[in-house]
Q: What sequence folds into this?
């Protein structure tokens, strides 16, 4: 670069820098203004808002579109609804509570978060705030809000503690079977029947018999769970000993990673909820065990190519019965809620009969029996009947331990590897020894 | 040498007295305050944290060096370290070779070099999150670019990249190569263009072929520029995070789980802040050592 | 012959660089039905639906405002602070030879992986009520950038001959006047290169913004875009639209200033 060149540049650039500086300067002034505005806003907020944090999920759309406006109209309290992606919100909400940052009043969570959130605790004890759950709640949903759990194994630290209510069911969600009437005729009763019919009716590469999520972590574990449990596998025994790799567990898992993979679309290893959903709604798969967020779209011509052909049923039976995974949305009040009174008001309002029926009619799954049976809601939403049937047939939540995130990560990673290989191999054993070492280190047992 | 001495002498003279004596420190103050508050303090805090054990989000006691010791017994960390090393080595090597090849090619003043230089800047300045999005769109087996191309051109079926460990890993390397080869290229091009012409002409007069000239003349003279470029890229590659966060989150299995991702998960997902911080600090030490090396090289290069 | 072969290779490289981006831009103008069913490189029917949905259902306009403010302010702050510090290091002798060591010391800040300090940063920001605010991000980014500014500007200032300042000071102006009138204008190209780099890095930063903000009132563009890539209900159309929008400002910016990019991107190794 010659000196003259450089000088010329200098002048030209100088103008640009000056402009840039002016812009940035005004931005800085704006920032200062915004800072004062923010404090003013916080002061005003003391009267009338509640900050609800949640993760982004199709299952919350009816709540966002219909219920929030209803609540605001009825109570005059303004709702600030903040959403992050699933794992980000899981991490962020926990951080928020642990550090008492006070960014949220109410957390809307996935139910397996409760043990971790309640043992920290980052949630307030609802029993102490005067919440007395009535008998109208669906009991399997309500049970998930207690810590330590009312049933099942407990952590050594919490052996003798009295269960307290930390969260209330928010949207009742669980898995059920969605299948193609034109292929199956009626809902397949057993896994064997599902596989036989699916194999006969599928026409690769256009259609495949069954579809599920194969992505590591939470996703594959959610798809594996109902198959594994129905086929007779168990995750932990009553003393937190890992038993998913015993003979029954390996057989059940082999059915998932080998048999079901053989009738699933290629590439299922990288499928997450969006791809499995697209496969069943787009006619690429004949059956699926899935959560209601996607099942609910079956009759919507804008989202489904197979309107009228899809029907719902219970999870097929195996040696272990018919067991679906419960995965409800559940909400609690943050220990550092800046708008405590409004948070309580919201929690109380949300479980009123009126709000629950409005939720059901908006197309969501409520958490109270009366709303579940509301005739107007069931007419629009035939999935509710299938969910009730599944609750009677068998439904189970994930193990209640604050370390579930870690367990699920290890298990999900190894399952994903086994699925890739198409056989169980040593992967379940490897997951078992990793998890056992982790639990030992954290005092579950010697 | 004489000029250097004179420089120092003059510098002393301009140092002045009175208020001027504190002036240099006043000038430094805002910067030092910022760095102390936003960087040094958090690091010290982090070091303290790395000696604690966390349960349920709270520190439950000091564990000495246990968190650091655990690094040697944690198979997941070993795996993450291995993936990271493989990733850095492969990506940086490919980028260096491609970048050097391109730079040599373009140094010969080709048609539309200017346009190419303009275009090549794009991948490295595009937001890393967006690069992650771009590559998800490329690899998605149902709607992706590769599947589309194969269908449009050959009428074939879908292409699967992210469902197998080895292909997902190579997919991540490809992303890095796409994003960062241009930087290699630009550095090396500048290096080549600043080389003197005489040695090359002399060699050509002596009848040396293209390859010989490259090995005997070009490479030795480019050595320091190459070292700088490789060092810079290695440091950056070690801490790659955003792109993986969007593309695979570390999967399938653990095949793309870099240390940065594993450390992040350990701290935020599993709430083991002590262990997570210990892990990342250990990595930071390695990166800092590399950085010190790089800075030394840059200074030497700048002096030449 | 060799010339044209080279040109062909270069053309290929340009295509490889551009096609993925073009595909994203193309996808952003397709309807979701076309994306999942037709599989073509370029949209058949163009639609702005993805963009209008983006601005209706999410807070993209707000994300942009946050990004511009945070980026502009933090680059400005770091340029001012950093230049002063760099001048001090370049022109004075400090206690214990500090002027030789401080530069690298400050630069290490830039090199440390941010993931190491995000947890403590979060706690510090919390203590000073700087979560979810522009000010918090501005301070953090200023500190990140200032390290780089010092490093770059120190070498630029050293290149400027002392005589010029001295002449001016002999004429009666103070040191700071000389700095402003003589040194800064001469170092302007360096300042520009540095600022450009700082703008790019700041605009693109993700992790710190992710951890320090959780409401749309303060989230920056990369965080907003990543929120869209949700675990459930992936919307390819909206995702590509978000990616395209996020990339536009920084690409336009880089193309305008591209002649000065290289020096910044290489930490001053290349002039």
A:
């Amino acid at each position: 670069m010659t000196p003259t060149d450089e000088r010329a540049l200098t002048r030209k650039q100088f103008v640009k820098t000056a402009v840039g500086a002016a812009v940035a300067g005004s931005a800085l002034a704006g920032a200062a203004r915004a800072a004062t505005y923010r404090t003013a806003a916080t002061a005003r907020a003391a009267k009338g808002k509640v900050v609800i944090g949640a993760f982004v999920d199709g299952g919350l759309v009816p709540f966002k579109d219909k219920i929030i406006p209803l609540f605001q109209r009825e109570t005059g309290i303004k709702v600030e609804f903040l959403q992050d992606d699933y794992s980000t919100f899981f991490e962020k909400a926990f951080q928020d509570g642990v550090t008492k940052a006070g960014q949220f009043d109410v957390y809307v969570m996935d139910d397996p978060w409760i043990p971790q959130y309640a043992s920290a605790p980052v949630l307030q004890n609802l029993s102490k705030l005067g919440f007395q759950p009535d008998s109208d709640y669906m009991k399997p949903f309500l049970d998930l809000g207690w810590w330590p759990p009312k049933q099942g194994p407990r952590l050594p630290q919490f052996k003798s503690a009295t269960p307290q209510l930390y969260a209330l069911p928010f949207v009742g969600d669980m898995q059920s079977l969605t299948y193609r009437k034109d292929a199956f005729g009626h809902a397949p009763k057993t896994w064997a029947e599902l596989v036989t019919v699916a194999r006969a009716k599928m026409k690769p590469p256009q259609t495949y018999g069954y579809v599920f999520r194969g992505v590591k972590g939470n996703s594959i574990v959610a798809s594996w769970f109902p198959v594994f449990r129905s086929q007779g596998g168990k995750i932990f025994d009553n003393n937190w000993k890992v038993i998913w790799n015993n003979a029954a567990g390996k057989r059940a898992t082999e059915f998932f990673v080998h048999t079901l993979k053989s009738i699933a679309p290629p590439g299922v290893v990288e499928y997450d909820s969006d791809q499995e959903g697209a496969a069943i709604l787009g006619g690429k798969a004949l059956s699926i065990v899935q959560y209601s967020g996607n099942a609910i779209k079956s009759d919507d011509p804008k989202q489904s190519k197979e309107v009228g052909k899809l029907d719902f049923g219970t999870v097929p039976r195996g040696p272990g019965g018919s067991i679906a995974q419960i995965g409800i949305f559940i909400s609690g009040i943050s220990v550092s809620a800046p708008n405590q009174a409004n948070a309580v008001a919201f929690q109380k309002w949300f479980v009123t009969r009126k709000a629950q029926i409005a939720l059901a009619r908006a197309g969501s799954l409520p958490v109270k029996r009366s709303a579940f049976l509301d005739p107007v809601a069931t007419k629009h939403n035939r999935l509710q009947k299938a969910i009730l049937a599944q609750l009677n047939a068998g439904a189970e939540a994930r193990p209640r331990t604050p370390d579930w995130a870690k367990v699920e990560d290890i298990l999900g990673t190894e399952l994903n590897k086994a699925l890739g290989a198409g056989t169980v191999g040593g992967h379940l054993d490897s997951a078992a020894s990793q998890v056992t070492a982790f639990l030992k280190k954290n005092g579950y047992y010697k | 040498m004489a000029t250097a001495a004179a420089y120092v002498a003059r510098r002393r003279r301009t140092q002045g007295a009175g208020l001027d004596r504190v002036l240099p420190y006043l000038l430094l103050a805002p910067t030092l305050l910022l760095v102390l508050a936003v960087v040094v303090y958090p690091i010290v805090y982090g070091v303290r944290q790395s000696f604690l054990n966390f349960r349920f989000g709270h520190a439950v006691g000091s564990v000495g060096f246990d968190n650091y010791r655990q690094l040697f017994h944690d198979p997941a960390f070993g795996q993450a370290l291995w993936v990271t090393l493989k990733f850095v080595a492969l990506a940086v090597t490919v980028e260096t070779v491609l970048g050097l090849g391109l730079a040599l090619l373009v140094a010969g003043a080709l048609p539309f070099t200017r346009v190419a230089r303009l275009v090549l800047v794009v991948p490295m300045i595009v937001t890393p999150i967006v690069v992650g999005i771009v590559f998800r769109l490329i690899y998605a087996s149902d709607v992706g670019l590769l599947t589309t191309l194969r269908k449009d051109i050959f009428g074939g079926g879908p292409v699967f990249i992210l469902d197998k460990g080895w292909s997902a890993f190579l997919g991540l390397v490809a992303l890095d190569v796409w994003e960062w080869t241009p930087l290699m290229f630009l550095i090396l091009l500048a290096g080549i263009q600043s080389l003197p012409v005489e040695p090359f002409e002399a060699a050509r007069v002596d009848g040396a072929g293209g390859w010989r000239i490259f090995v005997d003349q070009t490479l030795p003279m480019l050595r320091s520029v190459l070292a700088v470029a490789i060092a810079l890229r290695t440091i950056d590659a070690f801490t790659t995070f955003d792109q993986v966060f969007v593309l695979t989150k570390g999967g399938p299995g653990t095949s793309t789980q870099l240390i940065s991702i594993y450390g992040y998960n350990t701290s935020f997902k599993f709430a083991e802040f002590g262990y997570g911080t210990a892990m990342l600090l250990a990595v930071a030490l390695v990166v800092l050592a590399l950085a010190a090396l790089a800075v030394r090289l840059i200074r030497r290069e700048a002096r030449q | 012959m060799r010339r044209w072969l080279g040109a062909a290779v270069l053309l290929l490289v340009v295509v490889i660089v551009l096609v993925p981006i073009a595909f994203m831009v193309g996808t952003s103008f397709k309807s979701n039905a076309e994306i999942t069913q037709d599989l073509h490189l370029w949209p058949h029917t163009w639609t702005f639906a993805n963009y209008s949905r983006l601005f209706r259902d999410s807070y993209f306009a707000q994300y942009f405002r946050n990004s511009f403010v945070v980026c502009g302010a933090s680059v400005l702050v770091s340029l001012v602070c950093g230049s002063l510090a760099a001048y001090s290091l370049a022109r004075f002798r400090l206690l214990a030879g500090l002027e030789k060591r401080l530069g690298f010391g400050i630069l290490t800040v830039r090199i440390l992986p941010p993931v190491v300090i995000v947890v403590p940063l979060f706690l510090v920001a919390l203590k000073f009520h700087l979560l979810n605010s522009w000010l918090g991000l501005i301070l953090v980014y200023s500190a990140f950038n200032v390290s780089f500014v010092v490093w770059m500007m120190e070498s630029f200032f050293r290149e400027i001959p002392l005589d010029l300042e001295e002449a001016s000071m002999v004429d009666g102006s103070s040191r700071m006047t000389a700095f402003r009138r003589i040194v800064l204008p001469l170092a302007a190209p360096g300042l520009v290169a540095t600022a450009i780099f700082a703008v790019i890095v700041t605009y693109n930063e993700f992790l710190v913004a992710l951890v320090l903000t959780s409401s749309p009132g303060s989230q920056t563009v990369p965080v907003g875009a990543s929120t869209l890539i949700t675990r459930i209900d992936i919307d390819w159309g909206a995702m590509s639209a978000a990616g395209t929008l996020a990339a536009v400002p920084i690409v336009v910016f880089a193309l305008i200033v591209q002649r000065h990019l290289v020096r910044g991107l290489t930490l001053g190794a290349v002039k």
Chain B has a mean pLDDT of 83.
